[in-house]
Amino acid sequence: MILIFVVGIIVLFDWFIPTPAGSIAGKVLRDWNVIIVALAIGLGAFTMYRMHYRHLVRRTPGQWPYSAVTLVVSTLYIVVGVGLGAGTPTYKWMYSNVILPLGGAVFASVAFYIASAAYRAMKVRSIEAALLLVSGLIMLLATAPIGSVIWSGFLTGGNWLMDTVVTGTYRAFTIGIALGFILTGVRTLLGLETAWLGRRE
Amino acid sequence: MVVLVIWRLGRKGWRPSVRTIAGLAAIEESVGRAAEMGKPVLINMGQVGYTPIGVAAMSVMAYTAEMAARKGAEIIVPISYAEIVPAVEGMLKSAFAAAGSPEGFRREEQIVYLSPDQWAFCTGCQALLESRQVATQTFIGHIGGSSMIIVETGARVGAVQIGGTTNLLQIPFFLAACDYNLIGEEVMVAGSYLSGQPGVLSQIAANDTFKVLAIVLTILGVALASVGSLALAKFLAS
């Protein structure tokens, strides 16, 4: 708790009241943080290897082929990255032609999941659900090109919803969440928040 | 100072009147459902590290894990950032010990490190939901654009889902796909709410105190600006 408080106070003071000594201490702590995170990533990689190796050895049904792929690809990236360097054309090619397209493909599927969830959620079961459906339709027609072709009022209505209702609500949420963030940080610094350490109070 | 004063009041036994948060109250029932069905509970914190939302998410995770241990349900905790693995491990050990079944903690099966990459983490969660046919998912934490994929997959496998995030852009997706939702600051006070202990529960009053102050300042600022005075705005900005 004392360590948390001391480290937190040093970093906070460096942010709000910059001093030469505080800046040096803050930078040292932030560098240590980077090193610790790197060690944690290494630990996570070791854990991942161990888990998938066990699946592979035990031939876990429905899992072991994927574990084999995971182990081979992870090893390839580590060998190329450490051996040749992360800035080399080979590593960049592997990243640009494997990781990015895979992420893009998954991202592209979000639209279908949204459509599926909207179909299930937007049913008129109550007044609130009806309001959700009506506002959703207005926004859909306001943003789709065909909406303005059907009636120009959809665009006006959509803009009004975004500028007044949505903006006001989001700002209220933002203030509440920001206060929650600050107070959680204060409680952690003061040692009042201990659940994340496995303690009940 | 306000936080400390309210904490002291709480330690002396003062218990603020807190409205029931349906999503958090539903955790016990949902975990019980999973235990009866013999299917696991996926305790998803999204992509959190040692941040305020991460602290809140880990508090809910510990509570859910203890509930699952008491009711005999399996748990799976997918992890995105490796640096929280030691904390999660410690919290799960404590949760199982508090539930009276320390032997129920099985690190290799319950803590699943996926990836810090958002889309890899998303597909990993999908795989867990579909392959293990999860009965309950508590998804309280931080996630980006992949939230829709995860919660919609959970809905498709028939899981009861309790969702909550402070990422405002993802709240609509949670509302559309989850059975229970925590909105905005309800996520931040979740840990205090679930602890039920006066000293910790009183922190919700601290949250509300500052919220009332923000509302008062907003109304005052709007009133002053309406009559042409920006003194309060300039004072707060300075």
Shape of chain B: globular
**Percentage beta strand of chain A:** under 5%
Low-confidence stretches of chain B: none
Percent in helix of chain A: over 70%
- Main β-sheet of chain A: number of strands, strand sense, barrel status? none
| SS elements, strand count of chain B | 6
- What fraction of the residues of chain B are assigned to beta strands by DSSP? 5-15%
**What's the tally of helices of chain A?**
8
Biggest interface, chains and residues, is: A-B, 56 and 70 residues
Radius of gyration based on Cα positions of chain A: 26 Å
Structure description:
The complex is a heterodimer of chains A (201) and B (238). Chain A contains 8 helices and no strands. Chain A is an all-alpha fold and 201 residues long. Chain A has 2 domains: 2-108, no CATH class; 111-189. In chain A, α2 crosses α3 (64-83) and α6 (127-143) packs across α8. The longest helix of chain A has 39 residues, at 20-58. Chain A is extended, with a radius of gyration of 26 Å. The model of chain A has no long low-confidence stretch (mean pLDDT 84). By secondary structure, chain B is an alpha/beta fold. Chain B has one domain: Rossmann fold, CATH 3.40.50. Chain B has 12 helices and 6 strands. Chain B has a 6-stranded parallel β-sheet, with helices on both faces. In chain B, β5 (160-165), α8 (171-177) and β6 form a beta-alpha-beta unit. In chain B, α3 (52-71) packs parallel to α4 and α6 runs parallel beside α7 (147-156). The longest helix of chain B has 29 residues, at 198-226. The radius of gyration of chain B is 20 Å and the shape is globular. The mean pLDDT of chain B is 87. Classes of the chains: A mainly alpha (201), B alpha/beta (238). The interface between A and B is large, with 56 and 70 residues.
